[in-house]
Amino acid sequence: MERLVSSDxxxxxxxxxxxxxxxxxxxSDAPERTTAQRPPTARQxxxxxxxxRPARPPGTVLALRTPLRGRTRTVLVLSSVALPLLTWLLLxxxxxxxPRFLPPPGAVWAAGVEMAGSxxxxxxAWATVRRILYGYGLGVAVAVPLGVAMGSFAAxxxxxxxxxxxxxxxPAAAFTPLLLIWLGIGEAPKIALIFVGTVFFNxxxxxxxxxxxxxxxxxxxxxxxxxxxEVLRKVILPYALPGIVDAVRVNFAAAWGLVVVAELVNSQxxxxxxxxxxxxxxxxxxIFAILVVIGLIGVTxxxxxxxxxxxxxxxxx
Length: 317
Fold this sequence. Notes:
Layout: H1 42-46, H2 70-94, H3 105-118, H4 120-152, H5 154-167, H6 176-183, H7 188-211, H8 215-223, H9 228-263, H10 271-280, H11 284-312
Helix pairs in contact: 3-11, 4-5, 4-7, 4-9, 4-10, 5-7, 6-7, 7-9, 8-9, 9-11, 10-11
């Protein structure tokens, strides 16, 4: 039986499309990802590290985030105080600087003893400390609750953070004329200046300390059946308390700068007022003595707040 094939049947082409044809996605016209289009690697951006011998482990002093030994730490702390003092002694002994501009330590000590003997140093120091306790204490009493609310609740953060972020950039000293107009020339404007200059910084720093509480602790507390108020009192506040104390400690230095500015305006007593009177008669030895007293009071307060922070935060890792 013969197999008949019609000549009219269409021939089947067996030719495959060649490279470079017009078939979409095939050929030289298709977009190719070249080396220039690829994102650069870290080696291309920063270069390869040179080959080195294995590095020796750094010593205790140069090791990153490594606690120092007790003796090493003591030596460094004492050196940080002794070196500036020795430099001051040498400049005063050699007369390299005019004593009117940099009095020697002996003259500063004598001026301090003189003011202490007359009683004016203690009177002025207590007046300054009292103003700080009122102004800064009021600022802390307002800033801590608001900062805790900003760090705990998104609604409080949205409502308070923009205005506090704006006001903290305004120089507090610029409010002095307004405070004198609004509150008179007594103690009120001095206390208000310290309050205005510190409350907004404390608010934001307290809020940051509260936001450092791990969210896992909050979620676990809810899982165990705690309510919102219990989580705030028993989880968030205890964990954030050392950070809150640290924020108060850091901003305490700003209160000292503001109280000196406040006492330059219509004050009858205070360390700032005493500095202004000494400046009128070019008594730089008294000015340095008062600055030393301010530094000693500030360091004492800083140490007390550090100890308080460490004792309150024993459970915080």
